Amino acid sequence: MSDIAERVKKIVIEHLGVDAEKVTDNASFIDDLGADSLDNVELVMAFEEEFGVEIPDDAAETIQTVGDAVSFLEKNSA
Amino acid sequence: MFDLTGKTALVTGATGGIGEAIARALHARGATVTLSGTREERLAALASDLGERAHVAAANLSSREDVDGLVPAAEAAMGGLDILVNNAGITRDNIFMRMKDEEWDQVLEVNLTAAFRLTRAAIKGMMKRRYGRIIGITSIVGVTGNPGQVNYAAAKAGLIGMSKSLAREVASRNITVNTIAPGFIETAMTDALNEKQRTSILETIPAGRLGSGDEIAAAAVYLASTEGAYVTGQTIHVNGGMAMI
Ligand SMILES: NC(=O)c1ccc[n+]([C@@H]2O[C@H](COP(=O)([O-])OP(=O)(O)OC[C@H]3O[C@@H](n4cnc5c(N)ncnc54)[C@H](OP(=O)(O)O)[C@@H]3O)[C@@H](O)[C@H]2O)c1
């Protein structure tokens, strides 16, 4: 697992208070991990902080799963 | 009770009667305040009168660019923003059939759109810090209506609807969103009334007098406080009994 994936998963586990084994690449924040739309916004803010990137609203809307977040950050973080 | 030490607040319309009273009251309870308005000298005078814990950030709320800069400026000056008071407001009265598009647009822009955009900018930091108090100064007119003020009443009612909806979205994050609806308060806005208007208004107020800015500020302190945490999506009417809702 890449370092980015590791850090993303840690944020998701902490923020949503879910078990580590549930946080798979395909896990959808809302459908599988019990997030509401506000949690999604907060996860994006937490990713921005952790990775020092700005995630524009239209990109944020495409980040629905753990894997979406990891691949966005792999492409866009320094 | 109602200690605001360590809290940071931005008050728009701080050069006006009600805004100044709110800024003074929050400051007196220990908050650090950023004062906003367009009259820079007035802002500087108020800030120096308050002394420590007072910052100035001038902005014309009919300019979207100014609005965009205001919350970041306040956050930079104070290191955060816990309390946002959307108080600035204007009237452009006219009977409905003569109401011009510009009169409608200006009032909606300053009284509602600026409040929406400032709140959107402020809420992000509040979510992160898990603390926020958004206070909108609406008006009794936004609830009861008033001839000659379709634009103003629409904007003030809009502020109430916006606040209730947002209150539902962010309540779980320890952010409250409320409005205060003044009746007739002694300020520049009501100084413009003539004697006849004043007399007829007084007849409708059970308390038999206009209110003071301090009486609005007292409600703002309550809503801003940690003690007010369980009050959200509400409108506090401060109107001498003029309307009982
Ligand atoms: N007085 C009442 O009886 C009463 C009743 C119900 C509701 N209210 C509401 O209470 C609030 C405060 O009113 P007030 O009585 O204190 O009125 P005020 O003395 O006329 O003050 C209005 C404030 O709004 C600011 N403002 C106006 N246009 C602005 C703009 N384009 N950009 C930035 N700031 C602007 C003014 O700042 P500058 O002068 O520096 O531009 C001033 O500080 C308003 O929202 C009003 O609708 C008042």
UniProtKB/TrEMBL annotation, chain A:
Where O-(pantetheine 4'-phosphoryl)serine occurs along the chain? 37
User: What modifications follow translation?
Assistant: 4'-phosphopantetheine is transferred from CoA to a specific serine of apo-ACP by AcpS. This modification is essential for activity because fatty acids are bound in thioester linkage to the sulfhydryl of the prosthetic group.
GO cellular component terms, semicolon-separated: cytosol; membrane
**InterPro entries xref list:** ACP, ACP-like_sf, PP-bd_ACP
| Pathway per the UniProt entry | Lipid metabolism; fatty acid biosynthesis
The cellular location(s) given in this protein's UniProt record come to: Cytoplasm
Gene Ontology molecular-function annotations: acyl binding; acyl carrier activity
What protein name is recorded for this chain?
A: Acyl carrier protein
From TrEMBL, chain B:
Pfam families hit by this protein: adh_short_C2
Question: Does the entry feature the keyword Transmembrane, yes or no?
Answer: no
Question: Which residues of the sequence carry a binding annotation for NADP(+)?
Answer: 38, 87, 152-156, 185
Which keywords does this chain's UniProt record carry? Fatty acid biosynthesis, Fatty acid metabolism, Lipid biosynthesis, Lipid metabolism, NADP, Oxidoreductase
SUPFAM superfamilies documented for this protein: NAD(P)-binding Rossmann-fold domains
Q: Identify the SMART domains for this entry.
A: PKS_KR (SM00822)
Annotated active site residues, numbered on this chain, are 152 (proton acceptor)
Taxonomy, superkingdom = Bacteria
- Gene Ontology molecular function terms on file: 3-oxoacyl-[acyl-carrier-protein] reductase (NADPH) activity; NAD binding
Task: Report the catalytic activity.
Answer: a (3R)-hydroxyacyl-[ACP] + NADP(+) = a 3-oxoacyl-[ACP] + NADPH + H(+)
User: What family is this protein classified in?
Assistant: Belongs to the short-chain dehydrogenases/reductases (SDR) family.
What is annotated about its quaternary structure and interactions?
A: Homotetramer.
Q: What does this protein do?
A: Catalyzes the NADPH-dependent reduction of beta-ketoacyl-ACP substrates to beta-hydroxyacyl-ACP products, the first reductive step in the elongation cycle of fatty acid biosynthesis.
Protein name as annotated: 3-oxoacyl-[acyl-carrier-protein] reductase
What organism, scientifically named, is this protein from? Breoghania corrubedonensis
